[in-house]
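To: structure subgroup
Subject: Chain for Friday's discussion

All,

I'm putting the inputs and outputs inline so they're searchable in the archive.
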Amino acid sequence: MNRKWVCNLLADFSHPPWTKSLDRVVYMSIGKGGEEQIPFHAYVQPNDTCTVKAHHNATFWSFSRFPEEIQLHILAMCPASTLFQLMHTSSKLRIEASKQFWANPNVYFYVLEKWLMDKAYQGDTLWDVSFLAQVQNVEVGYSLDIDERIYRQQNGRVEIESNLADIFWASLKDRIPNVKRVILNQHSGTRKMGDVLLAMQLLVEASPPGVECSILITEEKQTSESTPWNTDTFQRCLIQPKEQGVWEKRKPGKFRETVLPPPKKFEGPVGRFMELLYQFGWKIPPQRSGLLLLMVEALDRHHFDMGQHEPFSCPFSSCTAYFSNGGEWTIHAAEKHYHDWEKLPEYLPNSSAGTDLRERIQALDRKRREVREQFQKIRDAWRTSHEARRREMKYSMIEQLANDPSWETEEKGEKHWVWEEFLRAVSIVKVGIWSSVML
């Protein structure tokens, strides 16, 4: 974990009084700024208290007798999991529940800007593209590489590729026709306070009518001192356009949630390979990082939750910090020990919560080994096969890439990125170092 992402960690944590369960699913992507991302299946997962079952029909019948204004008020208070169930179980409430589910202004669904800049082909993403048609709020993962694509500097001259802004919005409106709000979230790299965000501003200014667009960045503060271990020099800033070219900068709201769309169906020979890529890049690492976040919270709650008040010393042997109140350890762990989180399993309390978290991280480690073993089988099958068998394997993949709409891209045949990724993957020497540009 890089020190510049500590400001994101502090926003990710639950602080006292704790209301969330420790058995929740948390995705935290280290490579994307340490921000929490919620997989769609976890976002709509009901808990025991809000499960909609068939025997509630009588309750629904009574509900339908309320005036429409009261019905809408009740639905507006329902969690996403309840609304999602009503969308699929109640013919009377389906339409209104769907409106409430997608209109939540504090929930944003995640896509990558590179995908939009490359015309948003189905085959260039691992997400279910059809799902995005209902989405209203979009968080676009923004990389500093995009700056260089839009504002190209060559021989001391700056060339503005304004057509990329047109491609961006055309792709977004085509795939997400109901979009109303967009946040460009720069989750890699930092900017110094006062830096001009020319490329990002160009994109915002090109937004179509009816779409509210803003910028979220990690900014380096102006300070008199800066040390390699100082985490206070970075902050998150939300930048929004106002009238007559004025830009307003402020702290982002605390209640925004980022939800990852569901993955596409992985079928056929291409699907078998790409599901391993999805597991290895998008599912296992961020879930494991999320468990580390929960471990920090678990230790804090072990001493100060549910009526407990047991001050304790920092578990890291080289640290003399002492915590007298709930939440102090959480902040300390983020600011001072962000680079040592892999040691956290050693410090979990001997409680049911601690045992559960140990078992969950062990299960993820087993799953990671299984994925590596499955990939190794594919790699070994390719390496040990005779030429005729390799041709068969190649043909089956190229054939699917050419005819399966879910893998349609601008490049075809042997130039398709999936085939190039397959060749690169089966040529590596050690399975453990396999990594890719995850889409």
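Points worth raising on Friday:
Confidence is low (pLDDT under 50) at residues 49-55, 433-439.
Residues 268-304 form the longest helix (37 residues).

D.
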